[in-house]
Write a structure and sequence with these properties.
43% of the residues lie in helices and 15% in strands. By secondary structure, the protein is α/β, with parallel strands linked by helices. The strands form 2 sheets. A 7-stranded mixed β-sheet has the order 1-2-3-4-6-8-9, with helices on one face. Helix 6 (177-186) links the parallel strand 8 and strand 9 (190-191). The longest helix is centred in the last third of the chain and has 23 residues, at 218-240. The protein is globular. The relative contact order is 0.10. The protein binds zinc ion. The site of zinc ion has 6 residues, from strand 2.
Length: 243
Amino acid sequence: MKRDGQWLIVYDRPRAGFARGPQSDRPFPIFLNADHTHSLSKGIDAAKAGFDSIVFDLSALPFDENVRQTKEGVETLKKINPNIFIEGEIGDIGTGSEIHEKALDLSKGLTSASEAKRLVEATGIDILAPAVGNMHGMLKSMVSGETRKHLDIDRIAQIKRVTRIQITLHGGSGTGDEDLRKAIAAGINIVHINTELRVAWRSGLEEGLASHPTEVVPYKILPFAVQSVGQVALCRLKLFNKR
Ligand SMILES: [Zn+2]
C-alpha cells in the first residue's frame, strides 16, 4: 500500500447507493475508483479529475494520525465533489498485487471493531477497508491452488455491526469460494481481486504464445489474455452475486 496514483476502473451493477455512475454504452454504469491514494494532494487530483470514489489509504500512519488526516481528507474532498465516495483504511494487509514467495505475518495488523467504529464515526468516511485475514497479492502456493487465504468472518460481522457502512475486501485474490460467500453474507460489499486477474492475463498470454509459436501479429495473440481475464471475472461475479 505504498504506491500513490494506482487507479483502476470498477464495473458495478446498479444498486442502492451506487446507482449514479457516468453514462456509458454498457448496460450498467462504470465507476472510476482511485485505489490506494496516500496523500491529500493525490486525492485532490483524483477528485478534480472526476473520479467517483477514492481509497484514501493512510493505514500506514499511527491510528490517531490516520483518524485526524482521514477526517481532513473527507472534508476537503467532499468540498470538491459532495457525491464522491471516500474509503478509509485501518490495519495491515501488505503491499502490491504481486506473487509473493513467502507468507507474511499480518496477524498483528488485524482491524478491531472498536477502532473501526472510531475511524468511521470520527471521519465520516462512506466505505471502510479493514484487515480481516486478507492480503494484497498471492503466494505462489495460492496461484498453483495448493493453499487459500482464510478470512476472519466473525471479525467482519463485528465490524459491520458497529460501523453499518459499506465494507471493502482488499486483497481478495486467492481466497476460497466458501470464505468469500461467508464474508459477503457477513457484510463485505466490494471485493478486490486484482492479482487473480493479473495471473489470468499472464496465463492467457502464455497459452496464446504456446499455441501460435511463430505468430508475430499482436491481435492474434492478445485475445487469449482478454478471454482468460474475462473467464475469471465472470466466475467471480457469479460467486459474488450468488448465481
Ligand atoms: Zn488494495
